[in-house]
Task: structure prediction
Amino acid sequence: MARTQQTSGINPPAILVNIPDIIWDSLQGGQIEWRVMTGAPETLKVFSAIIRVVLSDGVLTQEEKRLIIAIGRELELDDGDPLKVYEAVLRGEEISGGREMTRKERVDLYRKSWMTVHFNEDESDDEAAVMQCLREELHFSKDEASAIIEPLREKAELEEESDTFAGKMKKIIRR
Result:
């Protein structure tokens, strides 16, 4: 579970300086947000955070539907859980629980979600908001999240390069 607090100034409270599992994100106005992450993320809490984000603008796009289906499938939610979470979020209730996620499950979920978003090589603002929420819920820093998807980006760039005329010529020359 994450506790979020804001502190003005640059330095965190002295007691938190040496705790390794703090994620720092800068905010506007010289404020710093710090979150102390305790325990592994829980599947229902992660899914409810995602649902809250996709419903925040009042419009559920096809891309968002595709993404939440992929996330729900990857989280291996029990039958009926997605509907229960959806209804609870509509009522404004906080959801917690589910199975605690391992590091491997968190990495796999983030990668598969990124691949779902980038299937058509573009990322909408709504999808970007979901990916940011997912990163935070899975307790990944920005740098860690970038490192997780870097191999996928490189692979996509290589595939894109090989689809061009120049890329095809390079393949022929390499033979």
Q: What stands out?
A: The first helix runs from residue 43 to 55. The first strand starts at residue 2 and ends at 8. Residues 2-37 form one domain. The chain has seven helices and three strands.
